[in-house]
Design brief:
The protein contains nine helices and 16 strands. It is an alpha/beta fold. It has a ten-stranded mixed β-sheet with strand order 5-4-1-8-9-12-13-14-15-16, sandwiched between helices. Strands 3-2-6-7 form a four-stranded mixed β-sheet.
Amino acid sequence: MKLAIFSHCAIDSIKLEGSNYSQIGGAACYCGITARELKFDVDLFTKFGKDFPKQYLTDNKIRFENAESERPTTKFAININGANRTLKLENECESITYDGTNADGCLVSPIFHEITNDVFSTIKKDSHFTMVDPQGFLRRTDSENNVVLQNTDLDLSGLDAIKVNPEEAECIVSGTNDEMMLALQKKGAKHVLFTNKTDVSLLVKDKVYSLTLPNKNIYDTTGIGDIFCATFCCTMLKEKDFLWALCFAGGSVQAALDSKKIGLLKIPKRGQIETNASYFYNLVKYRQV
């Protein structure tokens, strides 16, 4: 099966526990490598500059076309403190172009404004299954290039799934956590994933399914949401079962955090994900809303 991913590659400068690490990343890399680990072919729609090591994508058999730009790769300076992190935008590459895909599903996960509303609408019309992580649609920069979230009118019609945390949800809708999930569903998202640190919820129709991840020690959280989204998307496409998809997504995050590794090295192996998913399947709680 094949997953199309729409996101910029990035170069991240990560500050963690007094040490600095320079890593390639972006949802393009985290989602792409996770999907490859789950035995999916990957078509990547992205843009990067001459400063990005494209051989990394080629070595991992991630396909891309018309991705090279004359502008430098999107770059973030990331400061991590426990489960919290701050971002500063240091460079922004050009927008992503799109001319169609034959993939089984599409994962739209911009990191900073690289996908226009027109391109987003076209992807939704073309795709059999579309999932979105809206963070890059919501991000803006202040006078010092710190990345902040801003209220944004986002068209969610025709979406199969959306993943948000509380801060992101509040930029699209309003209310309590349950009210925001219901409002996102009303705007068009069939499956609403709501992540609040170790608490993970999924709204389907009139029921909320929830998991609490047992990870005790938070380390590098960069890309965790991307690993989660790619795992959910691939499992939904392959198994057509939202409960298994939730457990696999939670299992991938748990495995990634347990690794205590930096950057892309934390992407877990398929076996680790499956083991965690089987364990989580018996822990899912549900309630009606």
